[in-house]
Fold:
Amino acid sequence: MTCPRTEDLSAYADQALPARRQAALRQHLLGCPACRQQLDALQALRQQLRALPSPTLGFDLAAQLQDRLPRRPPRPRRVGWSLPNWLPAGVATGAALVSGLWLGGLLLGTGAAISTTAVTTGTAMARVFDPVPPGGLCAAAEICRLPRNLP
Structure:
């Protein structure tokens, strides 16, 4: 096995490695004096850092910052379906549907629904099948002059 990285040795000292990796590293340390020396140095450094005094502040910084923040009451969370929340979306959807049907009727030239007698006799033909569809632009003047009621 090749020598582990310093990060792996540090994780081994902190017992932060998975069990399988920790066992493999323990086996490596038994046969590698260089890695054992490096592990001893890491553990000594850890002990020295823990021995350092922890300075205390003369004041509570968190409390001072909390005092400067504006106090806002928490917003109540709404759960479930509520009519005032969905009403604008419903009105907008209904208006879009109605205007789409109305504009579609205008484009077809009927302005209203096609009567059932016209459909059964076959005399009604939707203008959608014209050479220039409703709302389309004419590519040539002779196409635009075609009669609208084809047999």
About this structure: Helices lie at 6-13, 19-31, 33-51, 61-68, 83-108, 116-121, 141-144. DSSP finds seven helices and no strands in the chain. Residues 83-108 form the longest helix (26 residues).
